[in-house]
Amino acid sequence: MNIAVFPEKSEDFYFKPDNTLVKDGSDYFIPDIVERLYASAAFVVRINKAVKYTTSDFAGRYYSEVAFGCILNPVDIVKSGTPLSSGLALAMDHTAYVTDKYADKTGLSGELSCRFGKKEFLITISEEYLIIADKAIERLSRYCSLKSGDLIFIELSQMSEINREEEVSIFYSDELSFNFLIR
Question: CA–CA separation, 77 vs 71, rounded Å?
């Protein structure tokens, strides 16, 4: 399974290995090599049909389910712009959280409530995010094949610093929510 991540308001993307994926909320234990940890909310698309190259007009054919999640980023591990230093940070275990369940992509509307420690905010969810997802699929499929089960995380918020003993909470509905502690 591939996990592609699009940073907030960016057409660029990067991949995370599947050891980073956590379904639902389990506490995150900060490794001793990490001094500063950041979190961002994400809209998550699960691919359900293989695709190599498609345009955004047809990208909706390749997914039917969406979820919400968050990305944890240990930025202090990235000591330089080298691929090795960024690769170490991106590969850290349990840094891509997603809700346990997915929902049909049709009828998305409402507010996503996010809390990263002391920072709380709301994000209005609408069909606009499906258009963003379609563009992300177009961009990704130009460079690599996508297969059933692949996940695309589209960051919805800027990175917020989070500390030990603080809570991360994402709430959209009873089924598309999770929370966990940073330890």
Answer: 15
Q: Within 13 A of 3's CA, how many CA atoms are on the CB side?
A: 23
Q: What pLDDT digit, counting tens, does each position of 96-140 carry? A: 999 999 999 998 899 999 999 999 999 999 999 999 999 999 999
Q: What is the pTM of this model?
A: 0.95
Instruction: Give CA angle at 76 (27, 2), nearest 5°.
Output: 60
C-alpha 124/C-alpha 10 separation (Å) is: 19
17-29: pLDDT as tens digits: 999 999 988 999 9
